[in-house]
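Sat 14:20. Reprocessing the chain from the morning session after the first attempt stalled halfway. Input below, unchanged.
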Amino acid sequence: MASMEDRSGEIQSSLNKYACACAIVASMISIIFGYDTGVMSGAMIFIKEDLKINDTQVEVLAGILNLCALLGSLAAGRTSDYIGRRYTIVLASIIFLLGAILMGYGPSYAILMTGRCIAGIGVGFALMIAPVYSAEISSPSTRGFLTSLPELCISLGILLGYVSNYFFGKLSLKLGWRMMLGIAAIPSLALAFGILKLPESPRWLVMQGRLGDAKKIMLQVSNTKEEAETRLNDIKLAAGIDENCQEDIVKLPRKTHGEGVWKELLLKPSPSVRWILMAAIGIHFFEHATGIEAVVLYSPRIFKKAGITSKDKLLLATVGVGLTKATFILIATFFLDKIGRRRLLLTSTAGMILALTALGFSLTMVEHSQERLLWALSLSIVATYTYVAFFSIGLGPITWVYSSEIFPLKLRAQGASIGVAVNRVMNAIVSMSFISIYKTITIGGSFFMFAGIAVLAWLFFYFFLPETKGRSLEEMEILFSKNTRPRNVGIELETQQTSNV
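Finished this time. Tokens:
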């Protein structure tokens, strides 16, 4: 273990430009998903009016994408193990392209729902594969930055969706929302072709026994030949290959297309894999259980409840939510590899607790007052932006970074897909039930509920999530070993890294 730590400490800390370019292109699929999420928040206002649908149908339309993304994410893990990470991104783009065309056509609620379901399957593929691909081509010292790019792209997509709402909302009722949804087909088509120029994940190539191809790519995504050799040797060991093997193609003694992974993950997991799975499921659960989807998807309704009545002002205030989210995730990408995942996560969740409490209080005051309370309106807007900022600087990007880096090589794709499936289920539950919840316990009460869940999230993160900053992907199973106390791991690793400097 000591030698592995020494090797990981020797890896160059500067960002490899080729690896960065690959991660950026692969993350573009996330912009398309983010756009669909953001644009739907405004498009629903126009769809409801044009197709004459009720609140329940609006909730189903909002949430069905995530239920279909659940199916997509579960299928994506095995698919990416079989055809490779790169072609899985191509497949995601094509599926989303078909969904966007149907949604843009959308002559009826049924066809709109069909397009949304197809797009949801593409989203499931994209959410699982983009972080995994980015994690597998990056070095330990820059993995946090590169693996957080998909979440940054989701935020940029959400912002573009909000801006699209504002401008396309000025068109006629029948054309406006169809343009909002259908225009996403253009970048989907471009990405399907662009992704073919990217290299395959070297870790997937090693799992197929293609060591020669893996070495060529590893030399491109590493800063030095020594770094490339060190990283490749660690991957060989993780795949059960002798690190001194110099053959270009080797025949692996075990299955390499994802067979038997579910058994190792769910039926007979080792203690460390069980802890890894619990950490991945937990962080994905709490990302949405703390209410971010309610704020992103229903922000126009929240601001309307707070007292903003003009449709233009509602959409502009919503653009502010998207801008805040994108800005703070961009800031987070530069801190993940410096401050570490654990410290940012705990700070982020604590800030979310305070902001959600303030939002619940201000909306409760507005609801129970007979006159317009300017201070409560201002506090609700500030609390919303503060909540989004704290979420975006920690829990938002770290969920995807953490869950894509902690699984062992053979289990990574399908393990990450389980996390994404949980993420989509929670996203669907919140987006499809938020209107019903706030009608039952008031809109202020719903945010007090989210604040209570955020307290549980903070406790879970503190006790069960160790620090992974600066560790190679091949070290993660050791990090999550049975005899390590979770809450002390972050402190132990920081001490080790300080002594290596």
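The two ends are 18 Å apart (CA to CA).
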